[in-house]
């Protein structure tokens, strides 16, 4: 099985993928790196669900 191309995904697509595949550590790391690139500092990947939830609330 081949791994998805996380770089080709938009942030929204990657976030949706991570939520559907919570056991894909490579996807989680890719999203965490992208979030940090956008100015949100994470101390650990465990913070990622909270960041996603806050971003979703801001978009509503």
Number of domains: 1
Low-confidence stretches: none
Instruction: Tally the beta strands.
Output: 0
Number of helices: 3
Radius of gyration over C-alpha positions, nearest whole angstrom: 11 Å
- Helix percent reads 55-70%
Q: Which structural class fits the helix and strand makeup?
A: mainly alpha
Q: What would the average pLDDT be, to the nearest integer? A: 84
Largest sheet at a glance? none
Q: Tell me the fraction of residues in β-strands, as a range.
A: under 5%
Order of helices and strands: HHH
Principal-axis shape: globular
How is the quaternary structure best described?
single chain
Task: Give the CA-CA distance, first to last residue.
Answer: 36 Å
InterPro entries: DUF6887 (IPR054053)
Biased composition (Basic and acidic residues): 51-60
Region (Disordered): 40-60
Description:
With 60 residues, the protein is an all-alpha fold. The chain has one domain. Helices cover 58% and strands 0% of the residues. InterPro entries: DUF6887 (IPR054053).
What's a concise summary of this model?
The protein has 60 residues and is mostly helical. The protein has helices at residues 11-20, 25-37, 48-59.
What does the secondary structure layout of this molecule look like, with pairings?
Blueprint (H helix, E strand, L loop, with lengths): L10 H10 L4 H13 L10 H12 L1
Core attributes:
single chain, 3 helices, globular
């Amino acid at each position: 099985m081949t791994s998805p191309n996380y770089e080709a995904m938009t942030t929204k697509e990657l976030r949706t993928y991570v939520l559907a595949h919570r056991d894909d550590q490579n996807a989680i790391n890719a999203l965490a790196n992208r979030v940090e690139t956008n100015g949100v500092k994470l101390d650990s990947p465990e913070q990622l669900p909270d960041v996603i939830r806050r971003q979703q609330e801001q978009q509503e």
